[in-house]
Amino acid sequence: MSLAAILICGLVVAWLVVTVLAHIPPFQFWINRVDGCYFIPHWNFFAPNPGDKDYYLVARARCRDGRLTEWRNVPLYGPRPKFAWLWHPQKRAAKIFNDTVQSIRFLRRVEGVPDSGLPFSLPYLLLLRTVSKAVPATPDAAEIQFAIIESTGHDERALSCAFLSSFHRQ
Length: 170
Hints:
Elements: H1 3-21, H2 25-34, E1 53-63, E2 72-73, H3 91-109, H4 122-134, E3 141-152, E4 158-164, E5 168-169
Antiparallel strand pairs: 1-2, 1-3, 3-4, 3-5
Helix pairs in contact: 3-4
């Protein structure tokens, strides 16, 4: 075995040992303090705050005569493919939607952005574009509105409106 191979193997083994130690509380503080460039990975197999809510995007239209249409579910992705356990790139759409919902929640609660300022944020504009493209416009619709519905529970689902947008011209 060459000297370069021995050095590379030694480096990989040292990195593995430090990675394992970084997940043990007595060593965690010191390793995180030294690891300023974040070379050591951190894995949370069971997150401290697991997701316990499902989110749905719904939309409705306001017609020119002031009448409101029924809320319709906005399809974000197609049915789960047969080989999703192996390859499922459509899952990214669900991740993007979840991140967008979390961003809106963060802007409202932590950053204190008022509801009047949300239409100028990137997450809001992303949802508005998604709704505008996914929901076919009815012939007499003048404006569109979307909402984020939050669902909790397994046996008995509790639904609540997590966010309601303003009306926007179509």
